[in-house]
Design brief:
By secondary structure, the chain is of the alpha/beta class. It has a single domain, classed as NAD(P)-binding Rossmann-like Domain (Rossmann fold). It has 8 helices and 7 strands; from the N terminus they run E-H-E-H-E-H-E-H-E-H-E-H-H-H-E. The protein has a 7-stranded parallel sheet with strand order 3-2-1-4-5-6-7, with helices on both faces. Helix 2 links the parallel strand 2 and strand 3. The radius of gyration is 18 Å and the shape is globular. The protein starts with 14 loop residues before the first strand and ends in a 10-residue tail after the last strand.
Amino acid sequence: MKGIRMGNSDLKDKVVVITGGAGTLGGALALHFAKQGAVLVILNRDQQKIDQKVASLHEYSPKSIGRVCDVLSQSALEETNKYILDKLGRIDVLINAAGGNIPGATQLPEQNVFDLDIPAIDGAIDLNLRGTLYPSLIFGKSMAKNGSGSIINISSMATYSSITRVMGYSIAKTGVNSFTQWMACELAQKYGDKVRVNAIAPGFFIGEQNKDLLLNPDGSLTPRSEKVINKTPMGRFGKIEELNGAVEFLCSNAASFITGVVLPIDGGFSAFSGV
């Protein structure tokens, strides 16, 4: 039924901007927030994907909108920021879900690190680090001026210890951790305790970007994914919707004294020594 709000009053009518909002992770979060009564702003580079995602959200959040925006373009972000403020009046939550690895920056089994394509490494760092930094600075400024807001960044298990084959991605996500802590302190000290910055560090979830690394064509586990499962005390991969509750919590009044944290959502992967 259109317009029904299903959840937490903390999120009712909040304006939630999600970069990469038409992707797997961002899209799942968008649907969850829409069901809580939030107004979603879906940012992506593909207009068709935006239109499809926004249409699916309208059942729960009729005011949700989308816009093509490159998270690495300062001018595009500034224009989008103005567009959102003109249309919706404010930004309450920013979720930096744009990211992921890119093919040339992932080592193939027969490669070593010296075989990697340097421009591809740059691309992975740009997308995952600068693609978090730039939206946070531009949309975060609007939150700071308004005196409240919550920024959620996406970290990774690749920041806790070395995970083979994804060097550029690991470097970028480690930078996201540092930026999350730095920005949290900066905003709290200069703009007050209602402007918060946190991150989640997902464990292993199977999506389009990592499917070939973790699953064989017949759906069985690859040697890499067997290692993942062996180091995950819960003994399974995560389900994408299992990220929703943690992100909702970090954006809610229940987390009003939490800023600068990186929360693992990993089935125990980061806690387990393997012994």
